[in-house]
Amino acid sequence: MVIAIIRSYPFVSYPLESILLFVGMAFLFVRYITQTHLNIDHHQVARTQPLIYTHLFLVMGLNLFTVGIEMLANQHHANLGFIFFIVGILIYYTSILLTTRYNKPLFRYDKEEISRYLLLLAAGICLLWLSKFSLLLLSAVLVVFTWTMMWLGAIFRRRAQQKQEKPD
């Protein structure tokens, strides 16, 4: 992913866009690590096949995201690239949400948290769609969106930990 961004958007030609695309991609990675490393109960006895399939879709989403970013740099393929970009993000975040069923009991999502997540995902996709005519704006919206998704996960973790610490 990083190589695709560097190759398609060299810093000399696209100084702000290349930095913003890299930061947006980095926030995707942080959200993945928070969910899969910190939230999932790695010692539970459960069927792992759905988790494996979810990760296959997650990788597919990242690949579409990367190919989309590369295609955005080419005027002849920018429209298809944008569709790949959006679909990749949608698949990625949907896959992240599907892994939450394996979370530690403390970090299991309830309906309210799922609704919040899906609402933010829909709002982010809409904002990305509206900013598709400017690479700089699209890159900036990507950073804000991926940071907000990362922040939502961090806030959820903090609240869950605070609830556990409070005596009833």
UniProtKB/TrEMBL annotation:
Source taxon at top rank: Bacteria
Transmembrane segments: 12-30, 51-69, 81-102, 114-130, 136-156
UniProt keyword annotations, A-Z: Membrane, Transmembrane, Transmembrane helix
The protein's name in its UniProt record: Low temperature requirement A protein
Source organism (scientific name): Streptococcus massiliensis
